[in-house]
Each structure stands twice: as C-alpha cells, then as structure tokens.
Amino acid sequence: MCNQFFSILANFSFFFCELCSRILQRLVNTENFILYPCVHSYFVIFRYREKVKGMFYHAYNGYLNYAFPLDELKPITCTGQDTWGSFSLSLVDALDTLIVMGNTTEFRRAVDVVLKSVRTDANVNVSVFETNIRIIGGLISAHMLSGRVEDGWPCSGPLLRLAASMASRLLPAFNTDTGMPYGTVNLKYGVPKSETPITCTAGIGTFIVEFGTLSRLTGNPQFERVALRALETLWRTRSSISLVGNHINVQTGQWKATDTGIGAGVDSYFEYLVKGALLFQRPDLMKQFNEYASAINRYVRRGDWFLWVSMDKGAVSLPIFQSLEAFWPGLLTMVGDVEDASRIMLQYSQVIRQYGFPPEFYNIQNSASDKRSAFPLRPEIVESLMYLYRATEDPQFLELGAQIVDAIEHSAKTSCGYATINNVEDHSIEDRMESFFLAETTKYLYLLFDPENFLHNDGLLARIIDTPNGECVIDGTGGYIFNTEAHPVDPGIVHCCSAQRQAEREAVRKWEDNYDLLSILDRTDNMSPFYFRKVCFSPLKIRTNFPFKISPPSINFAQKIASELFPSTENGLIHWIMRIMVKSKNVTYLTTAKVLCSLFFFCKRRYKRLVYDDR
To answer: What is the C-alpha separation between 141 and 93, in angstroms, rounded?
Structure first.
C-alpha cells in the first residue's frame, strides 16, 4: 500500500516538474535548459528507481520463463540460447543484482538452483576472460553478499567452492612461456591443441580482482600469483611511449595488433590496474596506471575524444569513439580526477542526445559507423554516470540516466525481455539480450537512482564479524569495488582470511592486552605533544613502543594495524582506537571526546566518524 502511494505521488511530482520545466524553458527561450530540473528530487529518483527495478524483473522473469537453463534469452522469439559455455549464465550474472534490489528470498532460491545446475567439469570450450568476469566474479560476489551460510564464512561456503573449482579449470590457460593466458580453455581437457596463441590485452590483464580475491579467501596463492605474473609481463611489453597494443602472442610476447586506445580489447586492463591497486593495496599497479594514463592523454586523446593510434608512434589509425570507452570517466572518478571525468562525459552525452543510445562505433565527425551502429544494451555509459553522480550530485547526470531508461523502455522492450538495438538511427532491434543487461546495466541504473543503497557505503558504517581467524571488519571499509561485470567485492571481506592478516591480528591482540591506552588518553590534558605523538605513531618513522618484543616490520606497524582493521579508510588508527573503546565497558563520552580531539589536534589528520553495528 505504501509503495503504491509513493508511486502515485512520484508520478504526480514528475509530471508537475516536467510541466514547470517546459514553462521555464519557454520563459528563458533556450534549448539548453535542462528538461528535468526536478530530476534530483526524491520523488523522481524514486520513480526511476522503481522503473529500473521493473525493467530488471521483466527481463529476469522472461529469462527464467523462456530461456533457463540456457545462457541467454532471445527476447523477440522468447526462446533461449547458449553463448558462453552453458552455465545458465544470465542467472549467475543476476544473483547479486537481486541482493542490490533487496530481494533476498529470490536470491536464496536462485543460489540453490545455481549450485545444483552449474558444472565445472563439462567437455566444453569457454572464453577464459568471459568465464572469469561473469561466472567466477558473479559467484564470488554472491558468496560475499550471501552472509553466513555455514561455519567458516567468509573463508568458506558453497558458492566460494564453486568459484574456486571453476577458476582451477582456467589455470591451464596460464601455462605459457610468458605467463600470459590463452583465450580459450576446455574445462575438462585444458587448452585445445588448435587454440591460437593470440589473445587480446584485456583477456590477459583482467584477472587480478577475481583471482586475487579467491587467493585471499581460500588461502590458495596460485590464483593471485598467475594473475600478477600476467600483469607483470604485459607491463614489460609496453612500447617506448608507454602504450600497449590490443592483441599479443602469449607464447612469444610479440604484439600482433599494434593499434591501441581505451576501448575494445584493452579497456578492462586499465580498469584492473586501478581496482587491483585499491583492493590489494598495491601501489605498483597504480603507478603503472598513472604512466599509462599520462601516455593516453598525450597520444590517444584529441580534445575530449579518445581515438585509436599506433602503440609505437602515436599516429592516429582510426578516428572513432567506441561505446566501450565510456567506462573511462567512471575510472577517472575513482582515482579522483572528477573534473576531467565530467568534461569527457558531457562530450559523450552529445551522442546519447543524438541517438538515444551510444552506437558501438561513432565517427567523431558526428555520425554512427555504418557497420557498427548497434547498441547491445551496454552498461559502460551508465556505470560512469553512477560514479559521477556519487561524486558530484550534479542532476545532469541523473537526467542522462533518466533519458537512457526511457529510451530502453521505448525502443528495446519486448513481451519477454529487452532486445539489442540493431541500429541506433532507426532503433530496429535484434533477437539477443546479453547477460550483462541483468548484471550491469540494470544494476548501475538502479544504483544511480538509489543513493542510499548499501553498496554506496563509503566507510561510515561497519560491522565486526567473527571468522576462523578472529574478528574482521566488513561493510564499512570504504566502499565496494566492482569487477568489470559489475559484481561487487567487499574489500573488508577480502582481507579476512589471509595468513598474513592472521599474524597481524595476533600482534594487535597482544598490543590490546598489554597496552593500557585508555589510561594514557585520560592524561591527555597534561600530556606533551611529543609524548602523544608516540601514541599516534608518525607515518614517516617506524615507532615500536610496545611492551612486547617484535621485529620492526618493513613499513609502519601502526599503518599495518590500521589497514588490517580498516583497509580503505584514511585514518585507520582513529578507527582502531574507537574499536578499543567499543570493546571497553568503562569508557565515558568524555573519554571518547578526549580521544577524538587529542588525535585531531596532535596528529593533525582528517578523520571520519565510524558507527559500529554489532549485528
């Protein structure tokens, strides 16, 4: 009843706002006036959130009714087809979207179906890249979001075991002289004898998120090891101007296609350098990305367009924009370059306003490519819109998202799903709905219009859970990181199960048991700044003022403690002290105030407020 009331109210609000905007548009006499000036209001956000939810369930139910257990729905004929290995792919890809939209009941039912139907030992050739990002990524994310389904979670669970089993079937692809993987593997027999050694760059550099997470959760280092080796080899093959091509021989390390850009065949390699750096605290990967980004801005970029150029000389080879490139503003937003990201997105928005959708290829002379004018309901443009709106709260990004939702509803909807747009100029359709429509496009659109969704957690909320290795902080470690198929990974859970973290936890326990920090903090009124700085720990020097013997580590031990407890927060030490106070039964609000004020004054660092939820 409440939902019906708010839906009616939202519809009324939307039409009232649109009426006002049309009147204002006439008054100011300009075509540049934003059509939806109220689009950022609660009611319009609610309206589009519900619209996207309805879009997802129309496609999801259509797949279950007409295509399952095949991989994908054919939405015009309302039949199904296998495309990537006969894994019931669309169901696996959609699991975490169900949780994002709050449907835990259907999620549990769908998980049971997946566990009974997905096999990892079938005699079938599969794409190593696609199986990793869609199947393994989907299973890992669903495992994390499922909660405690058995003792030992999050370090064990049926979905995690299935993901690890599937990943182990992909490992033979990495048995090359360079460590870069083949593009195809047979799940039962390994790499086919006739398999070509030529693989695209993204198919080599897009494993660290999933394989690194598997290693941290299962304790098997092999997954992360092969992913890192592939990244290291790719890095060594860059050209003298710090660009990489788009296809390489994985046995010899020789480039076979030297055109480069930020789109097809290359895109997610750059994405995973950033996300691998953030997820596993590897500054070397971020350094690599920064060098690539500098070269891209110098050689690939023309204004706010990114073209295709030679990796050796930087000469333009193809003056087009690809819809796959639309992930770039979102990635720039992740690394903090929001102003540049916004400018690039506004350039891309011209294409959306021209056609309703971005075509696969767009000639920068303002026309869609005759041969690549389709739009297979790709997510990249709405992915960047989500990141940019989260960073800026600029309503024009909501407006663009609303236009895309309306265009999909108008042109792509069929009786049982949503069809690929065959040509953006006449909006003709073809009989395919790829699984990423359920995994990515609808998820990113929903998150764009759901600012309070739990996936937007930026570290202000957290939960402490018990694991086989002791306490672990989850949900509040600075936000989820999405793999390139929009499957969210909780950085806190990633660090719950590793042996290294277990050793550091033991050191933390010893310190908590032997160091009476609260009694010292009660003396802060008379404490000298120098003495208090010993408690704060200088970030530039190693200070080991502990009552027990410990070998000085290679980096600041206090920082390691902070990163263990709150890996993605800026000032983990404050949160660690808050954790001690939560555990203590004799802490007063005055003591809490002393802690925060003293740390702020003497350490001169910014801090965030952490709210503990002991659910």
So the answer is: 10
Give me the residues paired with residue 367 across strands.
363
* pTM for this model (two decimals): 0.79
Residue listed under structure tokens 């706010």: 304
| Residue 474 φ then ψ, to 5° | -130, 170
Instruction: Using the structure block, give the residue that is written with the tokens 């290829």.
Output: 361
* pLDDT tens sequence across 114-144: 999 999 999 999 999 999 999 999 999 999 9
| End-to-end C-alpha distance for the chain, whole angstroms | 29
Spatial separation of the C-alpha atoms in residues 59 and 490, rounded to whole Å: 27
440 is catalytic: no
Q: How would DSSP label each residue in 84-138?
A: SSSS-HHHHHHHHHHHHTT-HHHHHHHHHHHHHH--SS-S-EEEHHHIIIIIIHH
Is 267 catalytic? The answer is: yes
Q: Which is nearest to 383 in space by CA: 303, 482, 459?
A: 482
380 carries an active-site annotation? yes
Catalytic residue among 325, 380, 383, 485: 380
Residues at the annotated binding site? 484
Neighbour-count burial of 53, counting CB atoms closer than 10 A to its CB (0-12 exposed, 13-18 middle, 19+ buried)? buried
**Residue tagged 């001169």 (tokens):** 604
CB of 477 closer than 8 Å to CB of 492: yes
Q: Long-range pairs for 469-474 at CB < 8 Å and ≥24 separation?
A: 469/155, 469/496, 469/497, 469/501, 469/502, 469/505, 470/502, 470/505, 470/509, 471/505, 472/154, 472/496, 473/565, 473/566, 474/154
CB 303: neighbour CB atoms within 10 A? 10
- CA 215 to CA 504: how far, in whole Å? 18
The pLDDT tens digits for 416-446 are: 999 999 999 999 999 999 999 999 999 999 9
Catalytic one among 72, 259, 360, 490?
360
Residue 406 annotated as catalytic = no
CA dist., res. 97 & res. 257, Å (int): 36
Q: Which residues are annotated as a binding site for Ca(2+)?
A: 484
Concatenated DSSP letters for 212-267?
HHHHHHH--THHHHHHHHHHHHHHHT--TTS---SEEETTT--EEE-EE-SSTTTH
